[in-house]
């Protein structure tokens, strides 16, 4: 039969987590914390369920949560989106990305993505009948080359997708990058999808350059975030999209027939958390920075070479001193023979750079988990 995603297999995250489980490997592959969510969040969830918030939520999201997101956005980025017209709560960032593409990208159009990019982008583009145009980031610094992006933009381009802090590299876009994007998109009908799921996980005093800080960008942007990353609960699958009223209206047409609404009790719990403990997201960068620093110090005792990590919770390592295997083969070998699961980078590319020897390790883990992984990595 004619199918729509002939090139798509099972995602690398599922493949590597299954392999890790089969072989009893320490799983630093798929990105998820292995520590507890804040106690207060569990209490708020329990309270919401007992208070009877167990039926369909408002289609666009629980009003208290949309208002809390608006206040948080103003507090962090100095811009307050309209809670009613501009914020939609979704089943994770994944749903938000899918909806944004489905809402505005038409068959035959093009979406520019920067490789390596998160693996859900291209299938969403393909299902819209559009084509992903891949522009490589620098293979070492993962910085964009805006001249290359400009060259990739043409009359069919409908959207540009960006992701900062970046998965898998942790690279961050600068204010100068955001100005470049504004200049590129000025006087075009091109929308911006800004994937900001790691917005609060930034290090060394850096500032996250949300598209929401830039009036020229936010008037054409779908800005996507995820509570899974911010509250250590990737399995709850709650995220949101901030977009101008006309774009949010289109986005909601997809959302209402995709899932209609998302898990009601958790929305009440996040609303309470955002207001009661802004310190949680304000301190998230420091919380992860200490994990990053400790992990990098430990990696110095292995033959893996860590690349810089400006944000996010992934550490890229160059393994060329250990092995000449390609990254898929290396990550399989590391998992099955050496007991540590990692994620190869090539699934994030249309055309992986020749000879690239990088693997991604997730450090959103307890010290004991990271210690166990390091003990094994020291034997490489
Ligand atoms: N975008 C990026 C860059 C991600 O890393 C992730 C999560 N791994 C997502 C989107 C999806 O987020 P969610 O789990 O909230 O759907
Ligand atoms: N975003 C997570 C990662 O990059 C995985 C999400 C998933 O498994 N779908 O590892």
Features:
13 strands, Aspartate Aminotransferase, domain 2, 380 residues, 7-stranded mixed β-sheet, kynurenine-oxoglutarate transaminase activity, Kynurenine-oxoglutarate_AT, pyridoxal phosphate, 4-stranded antiparallel β-sheet, globular, 15 helices
Q: What would your notes on this structure say?
A:
The structure is a single chain. The chain is α/β, with parallel strands linked by helices. It has two domains: 12-30 and 283-377, Aspartate Aminotransferase, domain 1, CATH 3.90.1150.10; 39-280, Aspartate Aminotransferase, domain 2, CATH 3.40.640.10. It is 41% helix and 15% strand. It is built from 15 helices and 13 strands. The protein has helices at residues 12-23, 39-50, 63-77, 92-104, 121-127, 146-152, 175-185, 215-218, 227-230, 245-258, 264-276, 278-282, 284-299, 327-338, 367-377; strands spanning 26-27, 87-90, 110-115, 131-136, 157-163, 191-195, 221-226, 239-242, 305-306, 314-318, 340-341, 343-344, 358-362. The strands form three sheets. Strands 2-8-7-6-5-3-4 form a seven-stranded mixed β-sheet, with helices on both faces. Helix 8 links the parallel strand 6 (191-195) and strand 7. Helix 2 crosses helix 11 (264-276), helix 3 (63-77) runs parallel beside helix 11 (264-276) and helix 4 (92-104) runs parallel beside helix 5. The structure holds 4'-deoxy-4'-aminopyridoxal-5'-phosphate and glutamine. Residues 31, 92-94, 118, 163, 167, 195, 197, 226, 228, 234, 237, 239 line the site of 4'-deoxy-4'-aminopyridoxal-5'-phosphate (PMP). Residues 31, 92-94, 118, 163, 167, 195, 197, 226, 228, 234, 237, 239 line the site of 4'-deoxy-4'-aminopyridoxal-5'-phosphate. InterPro entries: Aminotransferase_I/II_large (IPR004839), Kynurenine-oxoglutarate_AT (IPR051326), PyrdxlP-dep_Trfase (IPR015424), PyrdxlP-dep_Trfase_major (IPR015421), PyrdxlP-dep_Trfase_small (IPR015422). Belongs to the class-I pyridoxal-phosphate-dependent aminotransferase family. One of its GO terms (molecular function) is pyridoxal phosphate binding.
């Amino acid at each position: 039969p004619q199918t729509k995603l002939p090139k798509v297999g099972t995602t690398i995250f599922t493949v590597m987590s299954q392999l890790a489980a089969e072989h009893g490997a320490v799983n630093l592959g798929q990105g998820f914390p292995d520590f507890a969510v804040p106690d207060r969040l569990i209490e708020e969830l329990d309270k919401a369920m007992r208070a009877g918030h167990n039926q369909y939520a408002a289609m666009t999201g629980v009003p208290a949560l949309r208002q809390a997101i608006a206040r948080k956005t103003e507090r962090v980025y100095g811009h307050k989106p309209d809670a009613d017209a501009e914020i939609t709560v979704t089943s994770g960032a994944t749903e938000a990305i899918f909806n944004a593409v489905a809402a505005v990208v038409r068959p035959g159009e093009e979406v520019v993505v920067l490789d390596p990019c998160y693996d859900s982008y291209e299938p969403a583009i393909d299902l819209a009948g559009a084509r992903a145009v891949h522009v490589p980031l620098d293979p070492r610094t993962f910085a964009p080359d805006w001249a290359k992006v400009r060259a990739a933009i043409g009359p069919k381009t409908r959207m540009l997708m960006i992701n900062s802090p970046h998965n898998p590299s942790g690279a961050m876009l600068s204010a100068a990058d955001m100005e470049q994007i504004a200049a590129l998109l000025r006087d075009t009908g091109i929308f911006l999808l800004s994937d900001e799921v790691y917005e609060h996980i930034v290090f060394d005093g850096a500032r996250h350059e949300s598209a929401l800080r830039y009036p020229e960008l936010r008037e054409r942007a779908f800005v996507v975030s995820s509570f899974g990353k911010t509250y250590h609960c990737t399995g709850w699958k709650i995220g949101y999209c901030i977009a101008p009223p006309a774009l949010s209206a289109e986005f909601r047409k997809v959302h209402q027939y995709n899932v209609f609404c998302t898990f009601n009790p958790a929305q009440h719990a996040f609303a309470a958390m955002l207001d009661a403990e802004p310190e949680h997201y304000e301190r998230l960068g420091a919380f992860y920075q200490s994990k990053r620093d400790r992990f990098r110090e430990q990696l110095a005792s292995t033959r893996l070479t860590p690349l810089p990590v400006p944000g996010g919770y992934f550490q890229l390592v160059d393994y060329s001193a250990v092995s000449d295997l390609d990254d898929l083969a290396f990550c399989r070998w590391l998992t099955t023979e050496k007991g540590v699961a990692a994620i190869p980078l090539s699934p994030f590319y249309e055309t992986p750079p020749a000879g690239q020897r990088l693997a991604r390790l997730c450090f959103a883990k307890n010290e004991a988990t990271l210690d166990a992984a390091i003990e094994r990595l020291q034997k490489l």
